[in-house]
Amino acid sequence: MSSKLSTFICQNCGTETSQYFGKCLNCNSWNSIVEEIKSERSKHQDIKNNKKSIPFDKISSKKISRFSSGFREFDRVLGGGIVPGSVVLLGGEPGIGKSTIVLQSAGKISLNEKVLYITAEESLEQVKIRWERLNQKSIDLQIFAETNLFLILEEIKRVNPSFAIIDSIQAIHNHEMESSPGSVSQVRACSSELQILAKDYNVSLLLIGHVTKDGSLAGPKTLEHLVDTVINFEGDNISSHRLLRSIKNRFGSTFEIGIFEMLEEGLREIKNPSSIFTNKENISGVTTTITNEGTRPLAVDIQALVNKTFYSNPRRTTTGISINRLHQILAVVEKHVGVKLSEFDCYIATGGGFEINDPSSDLGVAISILSSLKNIPPLASTSFIGELGLSGQVRKSNNLRTKIEEAVRLGIKNIVVPKLEGELNNNFQNLINIKEISNIKEAVDYALSK
Ligand SMILES: Nc1ncnc2c1ncn2[C@@H]1O[C@H](COP(=O)(O)OP(=O)(O)OP(=O)(O)O)[C@@H](O)[C@H]1O
Ligand SMILES: [Mg+2]
Ligand SMILES: [Zn+2]
Fold first, then answer.
1. Which candidate, 75, 312, 388, 432, has a CA 20 to 30 Å from the CA of 249?
2. 267 versus 222: which is more confidently predicted?
3. Residue 215: its pLDDT value, please?
4. Looking at the structure, do residues 348 and 380 belong to the same domain, yes or no?
C-alpha cells in the first residue's frame, strides 16, 4: 500500500514545511522551496530477527583495519584510511575534480581490494577516456553505469566489493518517489538506503555530491548527519591547487586537510604544502603565521593593505579569514596599540586565499595591519602565533610545539609566541629564536621597531 504525502522542502537547507513560502524560514534563501510528493511505502519488509543485545564486555575491541585510498593526503583527511562499512560524502563545486580524484583513488585501491565504480552522470566511455588521460595502468575495476537506486543496490550486493563509489548522489533516484533526482527528498532517501546497505554488507561507500553556491541542488548539508564522514573538495579557478578538507569525521579529527595539484595527468599530492602559501619576502604588510588545520601545521602568509579611506564607513574585506575576526582584531589594535584605524580601509588576504580557521593567526593579522599602516616591513624571517584576547593579551595556542617544529623545518629564524610553559623553549635552543610575549604591544615593539 502506498499513500501520497505532499510536503514543501527547501532545496538549500532541507527544512520541511506544510505550506509554500517564497523565502525559507530557516536559511532565508529565496525561491528555494519546492513541493515534493512522497509516496511512503509501508515498511513491512521482513526484518531479519537475528540480532540481540549483548553485554558490553563481550565486544572484542580488535582494531578496525582501514585500507588506503592510495593517496597519503586523502588517507590523512579520512583519519588514516578508509574504514570498512563507512559512508563518506565527498562534496565540491562542479568541475573541481571530484570524479578525477575518485577514479585515481579507485584505481589504486583496486590493486588490493574489490572496487565497484557506479557512474550515474557519465557514460562508461567517458569514464574510460578520463582513465586513459590519467594514464593509469590497467586495473581490476568493476564499473556500472546506472541511475536507478534499486538496480544499484542489487549490483552492490551481487558484486560485494570492499569499496563502492556513487558518482553522484544527486544523479540517482528511487523510482518509487515522485520527486525528481537531485531533490532533497530523493537525495536523502537514496543516501539512507545506501547507508543501510553499507553497514549490512560491510561495504565502504563514497558518495560524490555537488555543491553549488546558489544552492540550486540539494546541498550535502542535508546529508551530513546520515554519513560518517563529510569531505569538501575545494579550490579556485585561478590556481591549480586543490584542497580536501574534512568537515565531519566519526573516525578522525575534523578540519584535517590534504593538498593536491590538478595537472593534465590528474591530481598529484603536494609534499611540502607550506611552500605554496608563503613567499618568504620581507615587505611591509606581510607576515607569516603557522596555523593548525586538523593535525597538520602549515605556514601561511597574511597580507594586509591599509589605506586612508575615502568613505564615511571604511572598507573592510577579507579573503581566507572571517570578516568578524578582522573587526575584532581592528578593535583590539585600536584600543591597545593606540592607533586610529577608523580612518583607514583595511583589506586582508591569506596566501593563496587559504582558509584559516585557527584563531592563533590573530597576531599575524594584527602585525600585518600595523606593518602596512606604518609602512615598515616586519622583522625579517619571523612567524607570528597567538590568539588576541579582547584586552590585548596574547593567548595560548593549541599545538604550539608542532607549529614551532614546522617553523624550524622551514628555516624560519624568529618566532613570536604566547608565553610558554615549562621547558618548551629549551627544546629549541640554537634551532630558532623564540620570542615570548604576553600582549600585542610587546609584539609590536619587537617586530615593528626599525
Ligand atoms: N585535458 C585536461 N587537462 C588538464 N586538466 C583537465 C583536462 N580535462 C579536465 N581537466 C580538469 O579536470 C576538471 C574536471 O574534473 P572532474 O570531471 O573530475 O570534476 P568533477 O568535480 O567531477 O566535475 P562534475 O561536477 O562535472 O562532475 C576540469 O575542471 C579541469 O580542471
Ligand atoms: Mg564528476
Ligand atoms: Zn532553507
1. 388
2. 267
3. 43
4. yes
Chain centre to alpha carbon of residue 78: 11
**Does some domain include residue 59?**
no
Report whether 86 contacts 230 (CB < 8 A). no
Here the contacts of 215-218 (C-beta below 8 Å, separation 24 or greater) are: 215/11, 215/12, 215/13, 215/29, 215/32, 216/11, 217/11, 217/170, 217/182, 218/11, 218/14, 218/170, 218/182, 218/183, 218/184, 218/186, 218/187, 218/188
State the distance from the centre of ligand 3 to the C-alpha of 393, rounded, in angstroms: 40
CA distance 75 to 97: 17
Residues 311 and 435 in one domain: yes
Give the three-class secondary structure for 78: helix
Per-residue confidence band for 220, with pLDDT thresholds at 50, 70 and 90: low
* Same domain (yes/no): 185, 282: no
Q: Closest ligand 1 atom to the C-alpha of 210? A: 25
d(CA 108, CA 265): 15
Question: pLDDT category, 121, cuts 50, 70, 90?
Answer: very high
Give residue-wise pLDDT tens across range 228-262. 999 989 886 667 889 898 888 998 888 788 999 99
Identify the pLDDT of residue 1: 43
Cell of 419: 608565553
**pLDDT of 430:** 83
Does the beta carbon of 191 sit less than 6 angstroms from any atom of ligand 1?
no
Q: In terms of domains, do 137 and 99 share one?
A: yes
What's the mean pLDDT in 389-411? 91
Are 263 and 284 contained in the same domain? no
Print the domain residue range for 144.
Answer: 66-271
